[in-house]
Design a protein that fits this description.
Low-confidence stretches: none
Number of helices: 5
Order of helices and strands: EEEHHHHH
Distance between the termini: 60 Å
Radius of gyration: 21 Å
Largest sheet: 3 strands, antiparallel
Helix content: 40-55%
Number of strands: 3
Oligomer: single chain
Length: about 150
């Protein structure tokens, strides 16, 4: 249904009071419909399991490695990210790194069940950010050689 908004608002995008609104034609038209919760699928469940596991590992990472991730994210934002987009934060780089590692070794890396101890014992190429860059899991940034703190702090 076409929506007319009050208070000099032309259009609105988002969900409010069990209605979903969309802005179309460069803000000239606002269409609303009843919000319907999407059905839960096995793919969403699998992605959720991976996300929870990676978040748990991220919480257990050594603070020096986390600082290297932050430094890498800052350099990535300055040197690689397009100027018209937001630069990724350290957690986004972490997810990018983990999915790149999985893609490089599909037979042995299972993101839904991997642990920090597995990463260290497998001598994974993500033990340091420097190793990840040298393994082409992350793009090269300036001063990459300084990002050598181990993931477990040992």
């Amino acid at each position: 249904m076409k929506v007319t908004l009050k208070y000099n608002l032309g259009t609105y995008s988002g969900t409010l009071n069990d209605m979903t609104y969309g802005s179309y034609r460069d803000g000239a038209v606002c269409i609303g419909r009843k919000y319907v919760k999407p059905a839960e699928t096995s793919q969403q469940t699998a992605l959720g399991t991976v996300a929870q596991n990676l978040a748990e590992i991220y919480k257990a990472i050594d603070p020096a490695y986390l600082q290297d991730l932050k430094d890498y994210a800052t350099a990535y934002g300055k040197e690689i990210s397009p100027r018209d987009q937001l630069a990724p934060n350290a957690y986004a780089i972490w997810l990018k790194l983990m999915y790149a590692w999985r893609k490089s070794d599909v037979e042995h890396v299972f993101l839904e069940s991997v642990t920090l101890q597995d990463i260290v014992s497998m001598e994974a190429p993500i033990v340091t950010i420097k190793d990840a860059i040298e393994s082409n899991l992350l793009p090269t940034v300036s001063k990459a050689e300084l990002l050598d703190s181990p993931i477990d702090g040992v």
